[in-house]
Amino acid sequence: EGQIEVLWDSDSPAIAQVGLIADESGQTKVTIWEKSNAPWIEEGEQVRIHGAARNWYEGRVSLAVTGWSTLHFPERGRWWE
């Protein structure tokens, strides 16, 4: 679980979104593939990712959201907001 720090445009039509997710241990690149049909994420949003594929990007681990992944948004839909 972490907060979406920044999102940027991808040159690939196969990628829906790409950005950085961060928690107390640091930042990790996250790629959401178009075919995953994952819900849209926004900068500053808290998200929990289950079942993401782990890859290496520039010597660091990265996450890929695929059709097997699920996203949970702990702060979405809270009645008091």
From TrEMBL:
CDD domains registered for this protein in UniProt: SoSSB_OBF
InterPro entries: NA-bd_OB-fold (IPR012340)
Protein's recorded name: DNA-binding protein
Source species: Halogeometricum pallidum JCM 14848
